[in-house]
Specification:
Blueprint lengths: L1 E7 L6 E8 L4 E5 L4 H10 L6 E3 L5 H4 L2 H8 L2 E5 L11 E3 L4 E4 L2 E7 L8 E5 L4 E5 L2 E2 L2 E2 L7 H12 L6 E4 L4 H11 L4 H15 L7 E2 H7 L8 H7 L3
Parallel strand pairs: 3-4, 4-5, 5-6, 10-13
Antiparallel strand pairs: 1-2, 2-3, 7-8, 8-9, 9-10, 11-12, 13-14
Helix pairs in contact: 5-6
Bound molecules: zinc ion and fe (iii) ion (FE).
Fe (iii) ion (FE) binds next to α2.
């Protein structure tokens, strides 16, 4: 599977949408269309007409271009069945435990309440790629807006249970923001400093900070590495 990150809402919300293509079939999808212009430009460069739009959750900065791109590309929109009322233009509702096939590439749906109720991760196990929306960012996690901290904790444990060599693709570029807490909480641990150096090198070149593998994230992200709900609460300042 080919994965192209697309920076959207640059300088304000710094969202990442992603263009993903199953190379065997040529079938493509957009993950979380945040802003239409940069996505249309990327599709044009790659001469691709995406057949699907895959959403992680209902927030406007992840679904704002759903309807425009649906009509432009004649794409079908896939999101959590339980959140169908809040996902603009949804055509296919999907739940945890179900598989979505992007051509020959299967994705598992992982339910991750906390940031919102109805948030899902898209996990392409065969390709070792995980799209984490607003649950997991580099060195930080999403705000707990609709769910409880217990739900966020449970969601993070699902991510922790996935293999170390899975690469993850977050919904925002928040690495430098997350770095402040990661450095403070870890007392400037060498692995966090190393993580940050790589991120800064990439960002300076105008690239996304990552992708990073879950092994690095389990080690360096102070919220994913919390050993208990109480420790997570302490680290989040509850
Ligand atoms: Zn969100
Ligand atoms: Fe967001």
């Amino acid at each position: 599977m080919k994965i192209t990150p697309i920076l959207c809402r640059a300088g304000t919300m710094d969202n990442y949408s992603y263009l993903i293509t199953d190379e065997q079939s040529g079938i493509s999808a957009i993950i979380d269309p945040s802003e239409s212009a940069p996505i249309i430009e990327t599709c044009r460069q790659q001469n691709i007409q995406p057949e699907y739009i895959l959403n992680t959750h209902h927030h406007f900065d992840h679904t704002d271009s759903n309807l425009e791109l649906k009509s432009l590309f004649h794409a079908r929109i896939v999101g959590h069945a339980a959140d169908a009322a809040r996902i603009p233009g949804i055509d296919i509702g999907i739940k945890e435990g179900e598989t979505f096939n992007l051509g020959e590439t299967p994705a598992q749906i992982i339910s991750t309440n906390g940031h919102t109720i109805g948030h899902i991760l898209w996990y392409f196990a065969k390709d070792k790629a995980l799209f984490t929306g607003d649950v997991l960012f580099n060195l930080c996690i999403g705000g707990i807006f609709e769910g409880t901290i217990e739900q966020m904790w449970a969601s993070l444990q699902k991510i922790k249970a996935l293999p170390d060599n899975v690469m993850f693709y977050p919904g925002h570029e928040y690495t430098l923001y997350g770095a402040r807490d990661a450095l403070r909480i870890s007392n400037n641990a060498p692995e966090v400093i190393k993580y940050l150096e790589l991120a800064q090198n990439n960002l300076k070149k105008g690239l996304p900070a990552g992708p990073y593998c879950l092994k690095d994230e389990k080690q360096c992200n102070p919220y994913l590495s919390a050993q208990s709900l109480v420790e997570l609460e302490q680290r989040l300042g509850y």
